[in-house]
Every structure is written in structure tokens, then in C-alpha cells.
Amino acid sequence: MNALTLLTAVGAEATKEAVKTAKAATSLGQPNVTAIAFFFLFVSITLGITYWAARRTRSTREYFAAGGSLGSVQNGFALAGDYMSAASFLGIAGLVSMSGFDGLIYSVGWLVGWPVITFLIAEPLRNLGKFTFADVLAFRLRQRPVRIAAASGTLTVVTFYLIAQMVGAGGLIHLMFGLSYKVAVVIVGGVMLLYVLFGGMIATTWVQIIKAVLLLMGATLLAGLVLSRFGWNPLELFAAARDRYGSAVLAPGKLVASPLEAISLGIALMFGTAGLPHVLMRFYTVPDAATARRSVALATTIIGAFYLVTFILGFGASVLVGRETINSVAAGGNMAAPLLAEALGGTGFLGFISAVAFATILAVVAGLTLSGSAALSHDLWNHVVCKGQSPEHEQLRIAKIATVILALLAIGLGILFKDENVAFMVGLAFAIAASANFPALLLSMAWKKFTTRGAVASMVTGTVSAVVLILLSPPSGSTSCTTPPPSCR
Amino acid sequence: MTTSPPASVAQSLAAPKPITPASQLAMGSTAATEIADSMSHPELAELAALAARRGRLAALLTTIMMIGYFGFIGLVAFAKPTAGTLLAGGRVSVGIVAGACVIVLAPILTSIYVRWANRHYDVAVRRLRGGKA
Amino acid sequence: MPLKNPGIITVPLSFLVGIVVSLLAPEQSSQDAYLAAHQRMHLGPVGDAHIAKH
To answer: What separation in angstroms does the CA of A8 have from each of A2, A4, A49, A92?
Structure first.
């Protein structure tokens, strides 16, 4: 019956479009054989890896930190895979396709936190901690207060980020595969639960590596197909966009309404990245600080290259697919990249890109859940409740219970917050990470006179002030979205 | 105008003044005694100097990244007409070039840091650790 | 507050509160342990099996 309503919807869409332009025919939203085939291939390979990883996951160190045995290339790709969400892929390509230059503002903002992590955070974090960033604070401050505060910050960030990813996932999968919203959310939550519950960090890492490689390959191939039509010169592509939409497409538009607003968002994006618990946790999967440093440098390069490619995709879609068509399929332009893939590579390529977008969401959600599980089991259960005396097998059991709870929570909240603005949630998550986690982490590593009370006060102030100010903020119903994707609806 | 409060904080924190071994030993606490037991005076001095050097480089590179990024944001926010000025026969704008430069700047700065750390920092750390074992 | 993203207020505020509260009530144990933290931050967990590899 879902397929039926969907077909009707697509039919109506197609009829509407056919009136406007002849190019509007798309198989997007219909069950796509290639997409489903690629998706099953991805899920079966990753579940195979999970089975293999489960046999190597017996201790908490293996569960939370993959035994600290990853190399810098592995962790570099996994970091990139953890970070390059569907929001950045579909959302930025969509924003660029609809408004040109403005999308670049977000790409830049999402990248510049990475050098900050490299210079200030990665190495000391690796050397001082075990599984969570709270370990760093607890190294010289009083365990229980700082762990409670840090775990609360972590769980707040994880919850908002999870809701954003789940709501985005439901919407995207609904559009791409024609599954109903609820079914899509349950599938994402369920598959993610299998990875994290049985395979822990080892499985999560490999899902992220595979996803990062697929996403880079798919996006680069697509950008190559675009550029091949413009003599391999991005300038010719920009010129074509300017000819079609005017020179405003190359200039700042409506997105930056006030300078203060832009700088404020910039601060949240730059320092928020350095306070994201699932990103910070990845530095414990490598054997030493030198490997952590090399892995974050590789991740910075991968993510930077990816954002340049995404910019090309956005312009390519606006020229080769057209804004009217993109906007008719999904308001806000989130389907720009898949539509471009269909226009240039046919239904098969569309299927591949759709499956990659799905895989992207799975990898990010798995990383988030694992970091929430570590905060609950390692910080709260072991160090706060049991004062560090909890036996290994019990910590592992608590971690798995926490994982199940978080997965159910993600599914439930994803369904409950169906109509919540994803941009709003992502903005909130970054603002909390930047103000609750980053200052306390940096001060504890760099300032001798930092105290337990100072750390707790800083984390509580950061969390509360960010949440309160966002609740008081103007409703984002105006022309622009705070953050683009995955749904600026 | 592009300098935000965290810039100065991060800068002053990331580059702590070198702690002299004498002041470390003067603490007399358990932690300090532990270190004093396991590390000699020259080693403590070397660690302090190394930490200060790493801190200065990290602060410098972070500052450059922040100037680049907030410079770009400032250009887009305060000087929209400049950012929209067309270049190269009208095929690209100042804003796009600036944004692409900031994106390229990030991996360049991290690779400068990694190169320095691989060549100098790791060697010094290995020597200090070796002296302990 | 007319801001959509509160970063420009909350990040400096969080730093400020952390610094002011720390200065108001110093904590000797934290200052003492900083030396060990400082050493470990750069040299890593010295003394475990890990170091033997080098």
C-alpha cells in the first residue's frame, strides 16, 4: 500500500512536472532495483564484517576502542566516514544547486574544526584518555562530578544529533526508495543496532571506512562526469551557471542575513567539531599519539577534497538538471546529487548514489550510538556508580544494554520528531558541543589552575545556555535555514 | 573584527610559558615527586621546552586557520559586493576563490604540523621516553 | 535573543565561567596532578608495556 501511495504521488509529481518541463521524468522515489541491490550488498558485507568483528570483541577496550589497534589510514578514513553525513553530501550539494555560492559557507565551516582538532586536541586526548573525553578531565580533576557533567553533555549532543540523523534518514529514504518514513527509521535503527551491539568499534570502524570510500568514489565519479562536459574546467561550469541564473549565483545571497549571525554560526561549527563525542572517541582506536595525529591530518584532507567535489556537484546539478526540476522533487534541493547521477549515469548510477547515501547515514548513526554507550557504561556506570570497580564483563554488558536503549531511543525519537526541522537539531548539537565540551576539554589540558568546580560550571553553563538560547531563538521559518540539510523544508 | 574571544583564550592557553624544572620540583606533591623520581633535571627541562615549542606552533597554526576562516566569513558578511566581484572573465567570484582557498588551507596547515611533529616532536618524545625506560 | 545560533555568546561564556570559578576556589590536587598530566600528554602512558616496543 505504501508503494501504491508512493506511485500515485510520483505520478502526480510527474504530471505536474511534465507540464513545466519535459526533463522532469525521474525514477527517484520508485523502488529502484539497482539501489536495492547495492543496498543489500552493502548491508550483507557489513553484517559479515560485524560477525567477524564480534568474535574479536571480548573486552571493553575492543568494544569501545577496537583494541587501540587501528592504523592511521584506517582511522583517517573512519574519521572522515564518521563526519561526512548525508547532511553534508545531499544537503550541501542541494544548497549549492539552489543558491550557488552560499553552500560554500557551510562547507568551509564544517571543515575548519579539523585543523583545530589536529593542533589542540587529538594528541593530548589520545595520551590522557581511555574511551571517552571525560577520561581527560578525570585524569586530574575529581572523577565523579566531572564525569557526570561530561556524560550529560555527551548524551545531550548525541541525542540531538541522533534525532537529526534519524529524521533526515527517514525523509531521504522515503524519497529515494519509496519506503514509508517509519519503516525507513526502523530499518536504519535496526541495522545500526546489529553493527554496534555485536561488532562494537571494530564493526563500526569498518562500516565507516567502506562508506567513506564508496562516498568519495561515487561523488568523485559524478563530479568527473560533470566536469567532462565542461572541458574539465570548473570555471566553464561556473560560467554556464552564471549564464543560466545570472551572476548572483556566484555571489553571497540570502543565507548570510546578518554578520553577527554568520560569525556566531562559524564559532559553533569550528569549535563544535572539536567537541563532538563520536569524533573525539575515534582517537582512542589508534595505538599512540603519532598515529592519532596522522589520522586526523588524513581525515582533514579527505573531508576538504569531499567538500570541493560537493561544490562541483551542486553547480553541475543546477546546470545539467535545473533548479525547477530539483525543487519539484524535494523542496530545498536535497535530491540534487541523486538527480544529477540519474541525468548523467542513468538509473544504475542513481541506485548506486542512493545506496551510498543510505550507507552514509548508517555509519554516522552507529558512531553516535557507540559514543553514547561509552558515556553511559564507562563514565556513568563504571566510574560514577561503581567508583571504577565494575568488573570487565559487567561493563561490557552495561554497554550493550545502553546500546539497545540508545537504538530504541533513536528510533522512537526519530518517529516522534518527524516534523522537526533537521537544521535546527544539527545547529543545536554543534552549539552544545562547542560550548559544553570544547572549553572544558581545552582548559583541562592546557591550564594548570583549572578546577573540578570550574569544569562542572563550564560544562553546565555551556549546555544550559546553548539549549535555552536556541529555544528562545527566532523560529527558522524565514527564507533561509540555519543549517541546510538534510531537509530545509 | 574577525577576532573572537576564544581566539585569544585558545592562544594564551595553548602556549603556556615554559615551566622550569625548579618550579616543578618545588611543588613537593606526590605527582611532582613521581616525576622528579623518574625524570632527571635536564629531561624535565627538555620536556618543558618541547611542550612550549609544540604549544607555540599549535597556537600559531590555529590562529592562522581562524584568521583565514573568520576572514572568509567577514568577507561574505561585511563585504558582500567585494565577495561577489567577478574574476577570470566573469567565470568565478572573489568569494568562491576565497572559500576554496580556506578549504585548501586546512589540509596544508595540518600537513605542516604533522611534518614538524613527525620530524622533531616524535624524535624528542622518543628520546625522553627512552631515557626513562 | 535574536540569534539563531548562540555560539558567539555561549562559547566565550563557557570559557569565562570555567576560568572565573576556577580562580575563585583554587584546587591544590588538580594543580599537583597537572604535572603528571602534562608529562603524560606529551610522552604518553609511560611505564606500561607500550613503551617496551620502542
So the answer is: 10, 6, 39, 29
Q: What is the pTM of this model?
A: 0.85
**How far apart are the C-alpha atoms of A34 and A417, rounded to whole Å?**
31
Cα nearest neighbour of A434 on chain C:
C11
Choose from A69, A110, A137, A264 for mutation: most chain C CBs within 10 A.
A264
**Residue A54 — φ and ψ, nearest 5°?**
-60, -35
Could you identify the residue written with the cell 595540518? B110
Domain A27-472 in CATH 3.10.110.10: no
In a mutational test of the C interface, the residue from B9, B12, B43, B120 whose CB has the highest number of chain C CBs within 10 Å is B9
User: Are the C-beta atoms of A203 and A54 separated by less than 8 Å?
Assistant: yes
Please, are residues A84 and A306 in contact by the beta-carbon 8 Å criterion?
Answer: yes
Mean pLDDT by 10-residue block, N- to C-terminus, for chain A (489 residues)?
A: 38 41 58 81 92 90 91 95 84 88 88 94 91 92 94 94 88 80 91 93 94 93 94 90 87 80 88 94 94 95 94 93 85 84 89 86 92 94 90 93 96 89 79 94 92 95 91 56 37
**Contact C34/A265, CB-based, under 8 Å?**
no
The domain segmentation of chain A, as residue ranges, is: 27-472
The C-alpha torsion from A124 through A67 and A295 to A148, rounded to 10°, is -40
